[in-house]
Amino acid sequence: MRIILHIGTHKTGTSSIQNFCANHIDFLRKYGVYYAFDPYKSGRNANFLGTYLSRKNYKEIEEFFSFAIKTAQDLELERLLISAETLYAITSFYSDSNNDLENCKFDKCYINALSRILSGHDVIVVYYLRHQMDFCDSLYNQMVKHRDGYKG
Q1: Torsion angle of alpha carbons 79, 80, 81, 83, nearest 10°?
Q2: pTM of the prediction?
Q3: Which pLDDT band, with edges at 50, 70 and 90, does 3 fall under?
């Protein structure tokens, strides 16, 4: 199975991509793509995967991928698309450590675990980047609009 992992980053149109995919499931299937997400865990994306990895809940991740792959195969689709921006910087979101070296060790652990879970499949990682100043502007605007406002 070809698995396409869209892993973010934040503020690069990920929500728009996720909403498009969730709203156009039939269109994607027509082109051989199964868009997998769990609306009960994280809306129109698979962001729960970052949480599961950080907590080493590998069984839940394996179950999600197994179910998604089986569903795609049952529908005779050749590609599985998963969008989870939390996968791009797991330690930035979930680590209690401020030590960059320690966080790199955790990131490597998470990448190895995900690699093991997806072994035997053709995995493509899609990763969007945004210029730092544009990212900062967009993030600041989002924080100002947040119900509690910016507290920086």
Answers
A1: -160
A2: 0.80
A3: very high
